Structure formats: structure tokens, C-alpha cells
């Protein structure tokens, strides 16, 4: 009886020393707030997307093959991040680092392509101040791009943590899981941008 009591006491102390983490649930809550943000931006574009003020329309400006390339690069980065998570669950630091590096390069390439598109539009006189259509377009797409940028910074931090860790623990895997949720969420948002903003403006 005494042994059982001691075992129960030790288990309770261990539970208090290592409380169950709620970070993944909290991150889901954060993603829901981000959903509200992007929903508001999509709604704004839906209202202002036909206010051209005598300026160019999406059909005049958007290079669909170029945007399709951006889309393919970002979707591919989601797949490579999935391989990184497989390595994380197998506790293979090298595999995680390798796939995170590939994902980082793809994400950075997406941003370069997006910045090149913005530069081209502004050079043609189609900057965000030209019309309500372009203001809502730049705001929505740039907000997504900013999220990608912060995701890349987060990815660099995680790569440093993986290098420092001799073996991946539950804490590192939990952080990688949160980043995975964030990265896949950005893919879903971009698919909506590609379909609703680009294709919807051209068709």
C-alpha cells in the first residue's frame, strides 16, 4: 500500500514538473484570428475589386503563368516541409535540417517572385495608389507575403535549434509542428488568392 502511495505521489510530482503543453491548441486559436484577418481582406477585395478609377484591370496587368509559377513553388515548399516533419518524428536531425533548408529556399524564391511582380506593376504605374482595386490587391497579397517572410524567419530559428539539439525532443517537435500548421495555412490562403484574386480578375 505504501509503495502504491509513493508511486502515485511521484507520478503527480512528475506531472507538475512537466505539465502538458497547450501550445499547439493556442496556436490553432492564433490561426483562427489570422483567418478572420484574411477573410476581412478578401471581403475588402470583393467590394473594391471592380473599382478601377479608369485605370488598368487585372486582365491588363496579371501574368497568370508567372503567378502559377509562384503557386507551384509555394505548394512544393509545403511538401518539402512535410518531409522535414517525417524526419522530426524519426528523430533524424540531418533529415530535418536538409528539408527545412529546401523549404526555406522555396519560400524565399516565392517572395523574390512576388517582389518582382510588385516592382513590375509599380514600374507600369499600377501602384497601390492608382485605384481602389490595386490598393486592395496590394494590401491582401503583401499581407500574405509578410506572413511568408515571418515564417522564413521562424524557420531559420528552428534550424538553429535543430543544430544545437543533439537529439530532437518533444519541445522541438512541438515547435516544428506549430510552424508546419502556419506554413500549410499560408498555402491554403495563397490558393484562395490565386483563385479569387488572380483568376477571378482575369476570367
Automatic annotation (TrEMBL):
Listed GO biological process terms: aerobic electron transport chain
NCBIfam families for this protein: CyoC
Any Pfam family the entry gives: COX3
Residues that span the membrane, as ranges: 27-52, 64-84, 96-113, 133-157, 178-199
Keywords: Cell membrane, Electron transport, Membrane, Oxidoreductase, Transmembrane, Transmembrane helix, Transport
Bilayer topology: Multi-pass membrane protein
GO cellular component entries: plasma membrane
Domain Heme-copper oxidase subunit III family profile: 1-202
Name of the protein described by the UniProt record: Cytochrome bo(3) ubiquinol oxidase subunit 3
PANTHER family in alphabetical order: CYTOCHROME BO(3) UBIQUINOL OXIDASE SUBUNIT 3, CYTOCHROME C OXIDASE SUBUNIT III
InterPro entries: Cyt_c/ubiquinol_Oxase_su3, Cyt_c_oxidase-like_su3, Cyt_c_oxidase_su3-like_sf, Cyt_c_oxidase_su3_a-hlx, Cyt_c_ubiqinol_oxidase_su3, Ubiquinol_oxase_su3_dom
Similarity comment text for this entry: Belongs to the cytochrome c oxidase subunit 3 family.
GO molecular function term, any single one: cytochrome bo3 ubiquinol oxidase activity
Primary role: Cytochrome bo(3) ubiquinol terminal oxidase is the component of the aerobic respiratory chain of E.coli that predominates when cells are grown at high aeration. Has proton pump activity across the membrane in addition to electron transfer, pumping 2 protons/electron.
Primary residence: membrane
Assembly: Heterooctamer of two A chains, two B chains, two C chains and two D chains.
SUPFAM superfamilies recorded: Cytochrome c oxidase subunit III-like (SSF81452)
Compartmental location: Cell membrane
Amino acid at each position: 500500500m505504501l509503495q502504491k502511495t509513493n508511486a502515485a505521489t511521484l507520478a503527480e510530482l512528475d506531472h507538475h514538473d512537466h505539465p502538458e503543453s497547450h501550445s499547439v491548441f493556442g496556436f490553432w486559436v492564433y490561426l483562427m484570428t489570422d483567418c478572420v484577418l484574411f477573410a476581412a481582406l478578401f471581403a475588402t477585395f470583393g467590394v473594391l475589386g471592380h473599382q478601377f478609377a479608369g485605370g488598368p484591370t487585372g486582365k491588363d496587368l496579371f501574368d497568370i503563368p508567372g503567378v502559377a509559377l509562384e503557386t507551384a513553388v509555394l505548394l512544393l515548399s509545403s511538401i518539402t516541409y512535410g518531409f522535414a516533419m517525417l524526419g522530426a518524428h524519426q528523430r533524424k536531425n540531418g533529415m530535418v535540417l536538409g528539408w527545412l533548408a529546401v523549404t526555406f529556399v522555396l519560400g524565399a524564391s516565392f517572395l523574390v517572385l512576388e517582389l518582382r511582380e510588385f516592382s513590375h506593376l509599380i514600374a507600369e504605374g499600377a501602384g497601390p495608389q492608382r485605384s481602389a482595386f490595386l490598393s486592395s490587391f496590394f494590401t491582401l497579397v503583401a499581407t500574405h507575403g509578410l506572413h511568408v517572410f515571418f515564417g522564413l524567419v521562424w524557420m531559420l530559428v528552428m534550424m538553429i535549434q535543430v543544430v544545437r539539439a543533439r537529439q530532437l525532443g518533444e519541445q522541438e517537435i512541438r515547435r516544428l509542428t506549430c510552424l508546419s500548421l502556419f506554413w500549410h495555412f499560408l498555402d491554403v490562403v495563397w490558393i484562395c488568392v490565386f483563385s479569387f484574386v488572380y483568376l477571378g480578375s482575369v476570367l
